[in-house]
């Protein structure tokens, strides 16, 4: 799976102006089963998305659709989950 960290590069006014289409984009990929989890950083300097295993070019194409492309940088890390607490056992092997 992938961990995608977004870091805002523009003022919050610009980020907030794109929030509605960004959430619609997130919702679309939750509905397709590609996104596992998402949330804001605290303090609110960006966000994080957990993405299921896929080819990296497909992930890059999905990320390129995000309206936040104009207000954030993306740091993508591939992670191979080998152990999980019982409550998160479904993540093992994703």
Automatic annotation (TrEMBL):
Domain named YCII-related: residues: 1-77
SUPFAM superfamilies noted in UniProt: Dimeric alpha+beta barrel
Species, as recorded: Erwinia tasmaniensis (strain DSM 17950 / CFBP 7177 / CIP 109463 / NCPPB 4357 / Et1/99)
From the Swiss-Prot or TrEMBL record, give the protein name: YCII-related domain-containing protein
Which family does this protein fall into?
A: Belongs to the YciI family.
Q: Which InterPro entries match?
A: Dimeric_a/b-barrel, YCII
